[in-house]
Amino acid sequence: MYTQGFLPAIYQPTMFRPGSKPVLNLDLPSGVSMDQRRKTLDLIRGLNRANMSPDDTEFAARINAYDLAFKMQVEAPAIFDLSTEPQETLDMYGIGKQPTDDYGRRCLLTRRLVEKGVRFVCPVSGGGTGNLQWDAHDNIEENHLRMAAQTDQPVAALLKDLKRRGLLDTTLVVWGGEFGRSPESQGSKGRDHHNLGFSMWMAGGGIKGGQSVGGTDEIGLRAVDKPYHFRDIHTTMLNQLGLNQDALSYLHQGRKERLTEVHGTVISEIV
Q1: Start-to-end CA span in the chain (Å)
Q2: In this structure, what is the dihedral angle of CA atoms 56, 59, 64, 67, given to the nearest 10 degrees?
Q3: pTM for the whole thing?
Q4: How many angstroms separate the CA atoms of 107 and 161, rounded?
């Protein structure tokens, strides 16, 4: 999970309105049955495989993408239909009331997608321009109080829901953005981007609860106590997913690169 809209959201905010059904554009074309669509995909698969080299893994991946898209088209409408959820769950996420309705839906959809085996889900908080996100250049107190009011109940509900369903142990939850806010004012009440000292949190997925690692100086300008780099966050995430940064690389423009770019350190205090 990431805040501030830096990664793709599960859905765009305009796709849901309180009490409405999602508009996902997943319906089959008029006059086309599910059986006909399946036969079409089988024909495409057969034609593609007819002349495919056995070692052409890239082409094989493209063929598999057709089947994956079909499965998504078939299963997504049911996953995105929140009407099957009990009222107690909707209330827990803050769905049906303001200001938590929108982000509550995103977090509940996150749980439903995790249940279906989706490997990566990004319920973005915020989006749009100006103070519709956590980019508090004008008035940090108003911005953060408002944005926190939208997210606190839903994200707490997500953690509780994952735990009570036995999913939290195998689901790594990461909350953060790419920077913090400066300790100095910007203009009068705003704060600028700040990359020298800020916090993120993790839960589930083998992370020790109740651990606080590191700290900033007296005014929150720089991380001075056990500072960790973003690559260390990434290394820890990979570690919790069972991936070794030194054994995992990919070819990019003719050069093998780690997912952590340079060597990172697992944050041992929290795992």
Answers
A1: 18
A2: -140
A3: 0.78
A4: 10
